[in-house]
Amino acid sequence: MFLSFANDASNFPFSVALVVVAILAAIEGVGLMIGAGIFGFLDGLLPDVDLGVDAPDLTSPSLSGQFLTWLRIGQVPAIFTLIVFLVAFGLIGLFLQGIVGSILGAPLPALLATVPALVLAIPVVRTGNAVLAKTIPKDETSAVSRDSFIGKLAIITGGTAKAGYPAQGKIKDQHDQTHYIPVQPDIETDVFAQGEIVLLVRRKKSVYFAIRPESEGLTS
Description:
This protein is α+β, with helices and mostly antiparallel strands. The protein is 44% helix and 15% strand.
């Protein structure tokens, strides 16, 4: 009965949100079995959100910046924030549709139902981020500056890195914590195979560019 309710057209956005969470969980499970943290890699692909959490600008904070800070965005890996939102949005939406259906005899149209679900999911995201920020070790969150990886060695752990096509790279920070990041060659003609060790030389948004440690680019 629940499956037929979840598959109803009026509940489509909420069912999709929960299915995406299930897919992410399955991908992470496979990643753990092959020794690669897919969540860490996906988090590296998400855009940076620099909120100035450590030293906020209280003199002229933007409205959007205040809102994101209130949500505690940036205090935990972005992929976990995404999962909290999807779960909250999906479950709240289904719950509301169930209540409306029992009262009015039919659920709200899908587009209309997403509005209260989104509004109610926002405080859940804030609470979820607050809890995760306290339970996840700080060294494993984005509290570690991504720019601190520049100049360090990384190993290609997933796929082949080519110009325009980053592959998963693994690196350890100054706290000996492991991070998975997207890496592609800084020299367009280079190709990095899985298992190859590379030197990170710069970052553009969430992608790191690397050269071989013995590359002539080090002396140019």
